[in-house]
Amino acid sequence: MFANLKYVSLGILVFQTTSLVLTMRYSRTLKEEGPRYLSSTAVVVAELLKIMACILLVYKDSKCSLRALNRVLHDEILNKPMETLKLAIPSGIYTLQNNLLYVALSNLDAATYQVTYQLKILTTALFSVSMLSKKLGVYQWLSLVILMTGVAFVQWPSDSQLDSKELSAGSQFVGLMAVLTACFSSGFAGVYFEKILKETKQSVWIRNIQLGFFGSIFGLMGVYIYDGELVSKNGFFQGYNRLTWIVVVLQALGGLVIAAVIKYADNILKGFATSLSIILSTLISYFWLQDFVPTSPYSSMKYWVGQVQWLIPVIPTL
């Protein structure tokens, strides 16, 4: 049963990661009349949906009893304030990260974003070694170095990019900085959350409720600080359409799936699953979104060899 949950969670994560990146990119570049939806409000709504989903799952685990649900929430959350406060740290970092992803995908094509974002595998490995005392083999460290080389090739400017306008280069720089910051925040928050999950006996769904609670608070603070004027002018749900709600639901689903992967596998295997989504994102970005044209550096075999070398020592651990 444990092995099945590991496989299922990893498979769903591949689907969720690929779908979220593509739909988020499409929603941020789609030209429509009226104001565009605010990414800060989308992050808050996703957190609230995640809380609702987790409450329903706890309700199901409580044999569909409202009294039992109320007792569990009271005992595990209200009566353990210090345990709950531990989730404030990764929650704040995840909120920052979710907002950064919207910034990145507003300035980078889906394929370049996916490849660059895989640097989180390196940051996750470093934090896992330092915080969880995990040991990685020589081939795994070597593959991480090759991964960094591949990302450097992807970001190396082509002739067309050198001749482009400064505004375009500035947009790419903003997107790249957003991705790099998200990589470090993702690595630390993921390992910190894994440490909490595996050191306590609380349900993963209870932990997600705690995480979502703080995430909603931090998210609302971000809405007020950065988009308060726009919200007061056009409303909290300005620019929302069917595609926006799909993005929000996928983002909420991602929080649940990632928690399950961390619980039943670990953060390094999470990196394995998200690496698989690169190929899908690249193909769809090229054939469907048509916002990505492979260049010589991007198609360099160094990156793909890096992915293969990373997967070889990881696959047996599944």
Automatic annotation (TrEMBL):
Annotated InterPro entries: EmrE-like, Nuc_sug_transpt
Topology in membrane: Multi-pass membrane protein
Top-rank lineage group of the source organism: Eukaryota
Pfam families reported for this sequence: Nuc_sug_transp
Main location: Golgi
GO MF annotations, alphabetized: UDP-galactose transmembrane transporter activity
Residue ranges crossing the lipid bilayer per the database entry: 7-26, 38-59, 136-154, 174-193, 205-225, 245-265, 272-289
Catalytic activity annotation: UMP(out) + UDP-N-acetyl-alpha-D-glucosamine(in) = UMP(in) + UDP-N-acetyl-alpha-D-glucosamine(out)
Key words, A-Z: Golgi apparatus, Membrane, Sugar transport, Transmembrane, Transmembrane helix, Transport
Localization per Swiss-Prot or TrEMBL: Golgi apparatus membrane
GO CC term (a single one): Golgi membrane
Family that this chain belongs to: Belongs to the nucleotide-sugar transporter family. SLC35A subfamily.
PANTHER family for the chain: NUCLEOTIDE-SUGAR TRANSMEMBRANE TRANSPORTER
Official protein name in the record: Solute carrier family 35 member A3
Protein species of origin: Homo sapiens (Human)
Native organism taxonomy: Eukaryota, Metazoa, Chordata, Craniata, Vertebrata
